[in-house]
Amino acid sequence: MIQITPLNINLHCVALLLCLVSLSQNANAAKVIVIESYHHGYQWDQEYYRAINDTLSPLHNVSYFEMDTKRLPKEQFAERADLAWKYIQSQAPQLVILADDNAVNLLHQRLNDSLIPVVYLGVNMNPREYHLNEHKRFTGVIERPLLRHSLLLIQRLLPQTVHRKILVLFDQGVTSDSAAEYISKQHSSILGDIEVNLVQLSQLADWQQQVLTAKEQGYNAIVVALYHTSEGCRKKFCGCGSAPKMDIRTYTGTEFRILGI
After folding, report:
1. How many CB atoms lie within 10 A of CB 213?
2. 168 in helix, strand or coil?
3. 73-127: per-residue pLDDT in tens?
4. Which end of the chain is more exposed for a tag (fewer CB within 10 A), N or C?
5. Tell me: the pLDDT tens digits for 141-199?
6. SS3 at position 198
7. Contacts 24+ apart (CB under 8 A), 92-95
C-alpha cells in the first residue's frame, strides 16, 4: 500500500508570501479575508492558517470564513458561497485569499467582477478550467499529487508477472473528482502495460470491502489517494464529533500485504 501525499505546505507558503510581499511592505494595515473551502479543524487548513498569520499578523487585519464543504452536502455549497460573498462585501478587503477548489469555483467570477485582488492556493484542477488565466487580478499556486513519482516507484516494486494491476482508491469529494480526472488522463502514458483502476467510494464499509477483495481481484498494489469525506471516517478526519478510531491508511496497509510495504 502506498499513499499519495500533498506537497509540503512550505512550498505553498513560498509562493504565497511572494504574492503578499507588497502588503507586508505597506506601512498601512491592510484588510485580508481568507475564504476556506473547508474548516479550521481540518489539518490542511490549520497549516496554511499558521503560515498566513505568521506572515501578516499583527501588522495586517486577517479574517477567515469557513465554507465547510468537507462536512456539508453539495446541495449546501451554493448557499455557503453566497454567505462568503456577503461577508466579503461587508468587510471591503484589499485582498482575498481563496483556499482550495470549492472556494475558487464558487467565488472566482464574482471576485473578478469586483476587481478585488485574489491569491488562490491548494487548487487541484487546471486553473484554466476556472478561467483564472483570464482574470487579471488573480495569482496563486496549484496542488497536484506526485502521481508520476508514486506510480514509477510502484512499477519498480511490483513483481515481474504477466499482468500487473494497481488499485487507486478515492473518496467522492470534489477534490477527489478533480484528482481522479487528472490521474485518468495520465497513467496510461506512464505505466504502459500495467493496468490502473480508479475507484471512488463514499462509504467506509465499501472501502474496506475493496481492500479485502483486492488480492483475489488480482491487484498487486493499492494507492491510498483521498479518503477524508468517506462516511464512517468523516468525523474523525474532519475534526467534528467523535467516531471509532479508524485510520484508513493504517487499515489498508494492514489488510493488504501483497507488497509488504
Report:
1. 10
2. strand
3. 889 999 999 999 999 999 999 999 999 999 999 999 999 999 999 999 988 888 8
4. C
5. 887 766 667 777 877 887 777 678 888 888 876 667 766 676 666 555 456 677 888 88
6. strand
7. 92/31, 93/30, 93/31, 93/32, 93/33, 94/23, 94/30, 94/31, 94/32, 95/20, 95/23, 95/30, 95/31, 95/32, 95/33, 95/119
At residue 79, the pLDDT reads 97
Cα within 13 Å of Cα(144), Cβ side = 14
Q: How much is the pLDDT for 134?
A: 92
Coil/strand/helix, residue 235:
helix
Report residue 120 as a C-alpha cell.
Answer: 488562490
User: DSSP labels for 81-143?
Assistant: HHHHHHHHHHH--SEEEEESHHHHHHHHHHHHHHT--EEEEEE-S-GGGGTGGG-TTEEEEE-
User: Which of 196, 205, 201 lies closest to 246, judged by CA?
Assistant: 205
Cell reading at 26: 505597506
